[in-house]
Amino acid sequence: MQTTIEIVSFGYLHATPPAAHLTVDLRHHFRDPHVSPELRHMTAHDEPVRTTVLATRGIRDLVDSIAGAAAAFAAGPTAGPVAIAAGCAGGRHRAPTVALAVAGLLTAAGYAVTVHHRDLGKPVVDR
Fewest beta carbons within 10 Å, which of 11, 24, 28, 114? Predict the structure, then answer.
């Protein structure tokens, strides 16, 4: 039986992080597209947001590392799904983009992957 890898994106400003085997905090080391007025009200469903996030130096290496860590958890002897959480401030830009990129790599590698964006549809947080 194949291990399912569950990936959830979320925003720290909305609620506590979900339970996960691995939680990645994207708030402090990667520029927030929220600061760009033209991207603020967009989400990871919009190509300009995904392009901006994935062009951020270090993000692609991080995506590769998260996928590798998820695969390592899945290879372990314990049965059950592997939970990966990616969080940013509002959960609309960085976290869902990274979650989708990780899911793409894992799916291409043959893993069964589910993705849930907990806060992507919530309103923009004024800060």
Answer: 28
Q: What are phi and psi of 83, to 5 degrees?
A: -105, 125
Q: Is the dihedral of CA 47, 49, 50, 56 positive or negative?
A: positive
Task: Please give the full DSSP string across 43-75, using - where no structure is assigned.
Answer: -TTSHHHHHHHHTSTTHHHHHHHHHHHHHHHHH
Rounded Cα–Cα distance for residues 84 and 102 (Å): 10
15: helix, strand or coil: coil
Residue 32 and residue 89 in contact, taking contact as beta carbons nearer than 8 Å? yes
Is the per-residue pLDDT at 108 higher than 90? yes
Per-residue confidence (pLDDT) for residue 79, from 0 to 100 = 74
Give the pair of three-digit tokens for residue 108.
Answer: 């291409």
Q: Are strands 82-88 and 4-11 parallel, antiparallel or unpaired?
A: parallel
